[in-house]
Design brief:
The structure holds three protein chains of three kinds.
Chain A lengths: L1 H24 L2 H28 L8 H21 L6 H6 L3 H5 L5 H5 L6 H18 L3 H32 L3 H15 L10 H6 L5 H4 L1 H8 L2 H30 L2 H5 L2
Helix pairs in contact in A: 2-3, 2-7, 3-7, 3-8, 8-9, 8-13, 12-13
Chain B lengths: L1 H22 L2 H29 L9 H15 L5 H11 L2 H5 L5 H32 L6 H27 L8 H14 L11 H9 L1 H5 L1 H8 L3 H36 L2
Helix pairs in contact in B: 1-6, 2-3, 2-6, 3-6, 3-11, 4-7, 6-7, 7-11, 7-12
Chain C lengths: L2 E16 L2 E17 L4 E5 L6 H8 L7 E6 L8 H5 L2 E5 L11 H11 L4 H14 L15 H13 L5 E5 L7 H18 L2 E5 L3 H7 L2 E6 L2 E7 H7 L3 E8 L11 E6 L3 E7 L5 H9 L4 E7 L3 H10 L12
Parallel strand pairs in C: 3-7, 3-8, 5-6, 6-7
Antiparallel strand pairs in C: 1-2, 1-4, 8-9, 10-12, 10-13, 11-12
Classes of the chains: A mainly alpha, B mainly alpha, C alpha/beta.
Chain lengths: ~270, ~270, ~325
Amino acid sequence: MFFAKILNYIRLAIAYVRLNWLSHIEYRNAFYIEAAGMFLNNVIWLVFWVYFFKAFPTVPTWTSSDVITLWAISAAGWGIAFVIFGNCRFLANIISTGQLDAWMLYPRHLLSHLILGKMKPSAFGDMVFGFAMYLFFVRPDFPHLALFCILTVSVAILFTGFSIVAGSLSFFLGNAESLALHLEFAMICFCTYPAPIFEGRIRWLLYTVLPALFVSYYPIEALRNLSIEQALYAFAGSLAFASIAVYVFYFGLKRYESGNLTVMRG
Amino acid sequence: MKYSHTIFRKYFALAFISARSNFAYFAEVLSRQLFLAVILYILLRLWQQTYSHCGLQQMAGLSLPQMLWYLTATEAIILSSSPISTIMDEEIRSGSLAMQLIRPTPYPLYRLALYLGERALRLLANFFIGSIICFVLVREIPVSVVGILALAMALPLAIILDFLGNFLVGLAAFWLENTSGILFIYSRLTMVLGGMLIPLDLLPAPYSNLAKSLPFASMVYGPARQFVHPCNFELLQFIVLQISWIFVFSIIVWQVYSLALKRVASNGG
Amino acid sequence: MAIKVENLTKQFILNKRDGWRSIKTEVLAVDSINFSVNSGQSLALIGPNGAGKSTTIKMLTGILHPSAGQAKVLGLTPWRERTRLAYQIGAVFGQRSQLWYHLPPEDTFELLSRIYNLDRNQYKEQRNLLIERFDLGPFLKTPVRKLSLGQRMRAEIAASLLHKPRLLFLDEPTIGVDIVARQELRDLIREWNKQDGVTVLITSHDAGDIEHVADRVIVINHGHIVLDDNLSNMRQRYLSSKILSARFHGEHKTVDLHGAKVLQSANYSIEVEIDTSVVTTEKVIKHILELGTIADISIEDPPLEEIIAHIYSQPVTNNDSSTHT
């Protein structure tokens, strides 16, 4: 029964990804330009950071391959998340402009259905970049590559969850579009710097509000030592955060259903 | 004489209205400051580690607090940028650019005025809040009045140059189906080659000089460097460089814009 | 019974900002309304903006929770069993499309079959039926952005019927559509209502929509039901007037005909309200033609706002909903 439900949802997700893809392919060049732009943009960043950490021994324990792995796993995880669940990133807008109504008319679980609604071409660029960098520059053996692929799923779950929480702020604050956007920027920032530079009390923040350590610490440690234990920590963190995200969304939805948000719009 | 005076007033009014309408987005201003605080904190941590692991008191002639004030300036500048090329992209694609063309103000100058107004406001907010955050983080203000004056001199030209760059990206919409890819690359180059995260002096010698002479350095690195480390000679040199780049960019923009107008004339927008 | 509503009430709490203080005010959007709709009936819900129409519809579809009262839609309580209800209702919003803008309608149909978990064979059967009845064949493979608004709305309504809903909500379905296409849409909705027995609940600003689609009309204002009557009564009383405007090449004589009331008269033009229960439109036109040399002439339904104002100006006798249940 549970298995059938999952299968049913995967079929729905595939149908959405297909339609999103077809929709973008209507403007083929625009899609490729955006995706390629994001790819190159990431390359510029990565070259810079590899240079930086080579030139200055800021984090003595980290090698260039660790830096590349960090970028690869964040980008690939981010890419997977928003190729499939691209509508997460519009959540704040959807809530504050009352577009949730239309989604509520479908016989599906609201959140899991809603987030399938869009795809960002740039996320495609991120996804390809992540896997390409890892394959070409880290040159992993098979176990590492397999673990990397599994961990990108964990990172994708975390980013999706974070995006849902950020977007759901619109339930409580009215239009939180730019706040959500900047929170996501902040999250990516924390995720793309080596975890060892953050010590002390800030770590609590990075486990909770901006859970970047489940991207920049556990997955990297797992890949370094080929440690299943560290990988499990990463998954545990991502799943816990995603569950909280679902709770926050449905908690906020009660305010929406009471209608007091709609009136705020006038 | 009188005529030029009224023209100036017209553009000033445009800039003013753009600044005011942006002030309405208070929530956006606020969340940008939140992000500014996050990124400054991260950079503080990064450079603290760098200074201590390198065992240095100064890098590129800057102490750690100076370095953080430098980074505050670069971040304040970068985060004040406005999405003008995205707006132009929409205007060009929807054909509303043609409407702008019949106005009595030339389109590039009209856009420039709006851009300056919006950016001036964002810069003020970012520098104000950024300074407070930076002070809280390093508990020191290693900035002199001369530095502030130097910043005030270098910043307007930097912003105009960045406008021309963005305007070019926006004009690409006449030829490309999507300009966001180019915008990603342009803004990333501004950040990396503009020295947003690292003073360009710290790059290896040949690259350092090359990067400093590129237009991106004139947009970000120059004003920030003069802010924390003013030097009359460098400032003069730097302003000459800015003006040269503005000259070069203006010519390119003018050429591309004329080409684009021909396309509007033949395709009807 | 398709819909049964008892004392349905919705109260909003409005936070008004006054400087730094926020003042809470309560707004009664829907005030204890009662009505019921039989299966297969076609009901129009009309009223000015902010009257409580869309709040009512949102409660009936389960989007909003009411503050008080009961509602059963197809035997379900919408806000408790929204998902189950969703399988059995269809919704069309004139201003919001569920078709994918850059893709042909058939792709959206395919996706909807997944969303509603439709059986493949039944889906294909229903889709083909809709393609035939709504004449979608010629543009089934054309991206929606290239369709005319009339074609788009046809595809839109077909899309909402794919899962064979028993109840169809239509919110301003003809907004912006040209006259010919508008009539086509009305006929299609009507046909589906009559032949397939789908219960229809429509809101519109267009008196013509209501006249051609609905059996029964509920007028709602300030959260109250001010009139609940069947269409023929409604038509006799309030929809019996037409507005005729004419422009002349020169001076014109004055109108003198029973049942034709002059609303405006200027040197070269005239506007007349025709009471069709007293005089036929044809007769009025003939009369107008005799007044001078005509340059231009048009006949329109009066705007709904005027009809509603008209309702207020007349004593209402038959507004008891119990007569229909």
